[in-house]
Amino acid sequence: MSKTVREIAELYTSYFQGKGHTIVPSSSLIPKGDPTLLFTTAGMVQFKPLFTGAVELPYTRAASVQKCVRTTDLEVVGKTERHCTFFEMLGNFSFGDYFKKEAIEYALDFSLNHLHIPKEKIWVTIYLDDDEAKKIWMEAGIPEERIVRLGKKDNFWGPAGDSGACGPCSELYLDRGPEKGGPTCGNNPNCKPGCDCDRYLEYWNLVFNQFNQTVSGELLPLKQTGIDTGSGLERVAMLLQEVDSVYDTDELKSIIDKIETLSGFTYDESTKQSFRVITDHSRSVFFSLGDGIYPDRTGRGYVIRRLIRRASLFARKLGIYEPFLYKLVGTLRDLYSVRYPELKDKAKDIESILKKEEELFLHTLEVGLEELESLLGQLKENNQAVVTGKEGFRLYSTYGFPREMTKELVEDRGFGFDDEGFEAELEKDRDLSRASWKGKKIQYLTGLSASPELKTEFLGYTETKSQAKVLYLFVDGKSVTEANQGTDVVVVLDKTPFYAEGGGQVGDWGYLKKEGFQFQVQDTQKENETFLHLGMILKGKISVGETINAEIDTTRRQNLANHHSGTHLLNGALRRILGTHVAQKGSVVSSDYLRFDFSHPKALSEEEIISIEKDVNEAVNANIPVKTEVLDINAAKQSGALSMFDEKYGNLVRVISMGDKSKEFCGGTHVSNTKEIGYFAIIKEGSPGAGNRRVEAICGDSVIEYFLTEFQTLAAKVETHNLSAKETFGDLKEFGITTVVPAPEDLQSLFANEGNAAVERLRKLRESLETELEEKSASLFKAKKKKEQLSFQMNPELVDGLLKKAHSFSKGKVVTEVFSGVDAKSLKDLADSLKAKEPEILCLFGTSEGETSTLVFMCNKVLNERGIHCGDLLKETLVMLDGKGGGRPDMAQGGGKRPESLGDALEFALELSKKKLG
Question: Taking every annotated instance into account, which residue ranges of this chain make up the domain Alanyl-transfer RNA synthetases family profile (predicted)?
């Protein structure tokens, strides 16, 4: 049954090619046309447009071996047998072609006759109500007793990202034998797939795509059903090679062998975490650099930088204090250039970039670690348990410590980390970082600074599609004369309807087409007057000199126009309501939202936000025609049009007017009438820096979706609150929420009947709901705590149970117990109950809540006469908790930290008591 990783991959593609599938090369780790994903995380990512029917199908069956990066479980990589950030996924796909029957038959045939997995070891799971899948599996030869029904959490997959194809699924499992079940399931006849033990391991997931999930979570039927399967190559190899870890499979083991040679350490139980982290992270970084994802301060580059630095930290545990990862590039090249031949030529560049990045980090690492140790020492001295966001950001900006790395380091030492504070500090730095990244991105993609003489004619103010001639093509930064299917390309046209990012508005998406050819435009940028269409060839090939049809995504363009015109109305409303001191400091206009930065000395009040929202919505409702003029710059200024203070303009400027509500210099795209904007709502207000404020808002149907989501979330909170109240107090209705949460159909009706006036009403309703939830939750919490304390204090079973557990000595008894979330008064009441039943007893109680711990020691005077002094005993014990406290001979109380040490502290107090009472 044993096969190498390479053999498994080749078997897979060969098998599905024989079944009529087009073998599609792995796409880049940068997902194209999907802003909801940071990396390519599954084989189906590159096929998302094909599942939804958004593009013309170049084929109806496909198979691939896809490189993937996922960092959701980064902190456990190295600690477990199977977690990786980089992996390869085998996948076969159908787009409106075959469905469940063929997908199941292919998977079983390949498992039995090509991987040679014994049939009696294969189990399958199906979605709860998928009787069709069950019938097909039984007809294929899997007995009913080895078919398990599981719920949505396990057997409903997708989408990849916030939207896309999804549906119920069926998974194949390998029974590895009862010995893998461990002490819990080793002899358990009811153990089956879905259990948390290691006996049954899933190795193939068959997704039956039937729905398209929108960004708001709505499930719509797909135009065509489809099949999306995924099988982790490393996991299949682990099963076939009969090893316990993916790190023991042939390819990963060869990387580990290289690390052993370079480090002088042996891969064993004491070093395996460091070896595994370095092995995994080196692969992720190698493939990411190969796809042009370079270390940076934001986005994907930030993740790669974090992986490099995390691997460097683990290398230190192997005694490696110099650049090290780059030395693995040769091994990685030899391993993977067979499946990914492009990596062979890129290896030297990858090695160079990686070495420089390691040197950059190691240069400041020693100083940074010293600074961190000093910081933690100061916190300990001041009895502080949390590293603030400001301190964490200083480690990031000065010493290059990524947030998650600092968090991991401080939490290992028992301290907390202020994530929100760090985010606030980071926000101040983001705008400059984004601008810098954008410039580097364009330079990388074009490989040149486009000639000022080369001017693309922009048609996008009046046209959404046009014919155009291809002037230049760029692949990997180099000028080429033609490019083929599957290639990432930058296309320069002589004219275009595509708006290039500028003036805060993001670039257009869409397609370039001709017979037999389709190119997906995933971004549009501009250098000087040259428009750059960034994207991937989905079908056919393209050559310089050809004439093609350029078509923008009109739905997205309309959303951009809504948000851009909404930005102008917002600017006008701000100046009318807050004052003419308001000046624009920056903006972002996307298809999903708008962001507007402006000068203003203080935060906006709730009343001001409502007034601004109302002003904009009144302008939307007024059906104001949007007028466009091209004027001499002096004439434009004299007309009263607003402009950005630090923006550079030519002699002629474009002026956008919306009646008396707005008049601004602007080169962006807009609605023709304010009514098209539909609705306007502010969703966030904050500060990007001293003296400035930032407003985020949404327009059009996004407003309806926003309130639907908000009230669905609130409805879930109300349900949880009411259940909690009922569980605690039965039918005490005063703890229930009285404000009625509108149903989705009620919200839709409100917008339909009241239009944008619904925004103000829904905002107030949401606020009243949130206020009532907060008030009732606080009241419920107090009442619940009081009930719990009463139950705790008057519990005879607890008293009798503690008396039975008491330690008996010649001069008295001692009872010790650690509680959670119990207040000191309740512990004293409990001790009084014990002393009443047993006069010769010493009560040593501890309790914890969060990061704090409390001790309560009590006894009767009869034990004081025998040498017990609760106050002295407590002071000696609190040393173990870094705490303070004291008291009388018969009662003492104190507090400290380190709740995890409460048990040890009470054991210590027991030993001290024994010396007096033994």
Answer: 3-709
Half-sphere exposure of 657 (CA within 13 A, CB side): 13
pTM summary value: 0.49
- What digits encode the pLDDT tens for the residues 799-810? 888 888 899 998
How many angstroms separate the CA atoms of 389 and 426, rounded? 9
pLDDT at 730: 61
Which segments of 600-708 are extended strands (E)? 627-632, 652-658, 662-665, 680-689, 692-699
Residue-level pLDDT at 78? 85
AA letter at 26? S
pLDDT at 298 over 70: no
- Whether pLDDT at 843 is above 90: yes
Query: Is 546 exposed, middle or buried, given 0-12, 13-18 or 19+ CB atoms closer than 10 A?
Result: middle
C-alpha distance from residue 533 to each of 84, 311, 545, 616 (Å): 35, 37, 16, 34
Position 431 scores a pLDDT of 46
Residue 731 has pLDDT above 70, yes or no: no
* Eight-class DSSP state of 144: G
Q: State mean pLDDT over 93-119.
A: 95
Pairing of strands 841-849, 812-820: parallel
The span from the CA of 265 to the CA of 273, in Å, is 13
Backbone angle region of 292, left / alpha / beta, with phi > 0 → left and psi within -120 to 50 → alpha: left
Placement of tokens 């040490």 in the chain? 901
Helix (H) or strand (E) holding 518: strand 517-527
CA distance linking residue 810 with residue 464, whole number of Å: 95
Q: Tokens at residue 520, please?
A: 């997906």
Q: Judging by DSSP bridges, how do beta strands 517-527 and 841-849 pair with one another?
A: unpaired
pLDDT tier for residue 212 given thresholds of 50, 70 and 90: confident
Structure tokens at 371: 């600074």
Tokens of 338: 């067979």
Residue 614 and residue 621 in contact, taking contact as beta carbons nearer than 8 Å: no
Phi then psi for residue 785, to 5 deg, are -60, -40
Flag whether pLDDT at 445 surpasses 50: no
Structure confidence by residue, pLDDT tens digits, 18-55: 999 999 999 999 887 665 578 898 898 888 878 766 67
Tokens of 162: 């916030």
Residue 265, CA distances (Å) to 77, 243, 328, 358, 532 in order? 20, 22, 15, 21, 50
Query: 371, 399 in Cβ contact below 8 A?
Result: yes
Cβ proximity of 493 and 531 under 8 Å = yes
Query: What is the CA 141 to chain-centroid distance, rounded?
Result: 40
What residues contact 712, with CB distance under 8 A and at least 6 apart? 744
From CA 729, how far away is CA 207, in angstroms rounded?
Answer: 45
568 is in an annotated binding site: yes
- Please give the pLDDT value at position 434: 42
End-to-end CA distance of the chain: 66
Paired tokens of 65: 């071996």
Compute φ and ψ for 183, nearest 5 degrees: -65, -25
- Can you say how many angstroms the Cα of residue 131 is from the centroid of all Cα atoms in its chain? 34
Segment among 1-5, 117-121, 204-208, 427-431 with least mean pLDDT: 427-431
- Give, as one character, the DSSP assignment of residue 507: P
**Taken in order 550, 63, 18, 57, is the CA torsion positive or negative?**
negative
666 is in an annotated binding site: yes
Q: Please, where are the H alpha helices in 578-696?
A: 606-621, 633-638
CA atoms in the 13 A half-sphere facing the CB of 507? 22
The predicted-structure confidence for 469-508, as pLDDT tens digits, reads as follows: 999 898 877 888 999 887 888 999 999 999 999 888 999 9
What integer is the mean pLDDT of 874-887?
A: 86
pLDDT at position 777: 78
**Can you state the percent helix, strand and coil of the chain, rounding each to 5?**
45, 25, 30
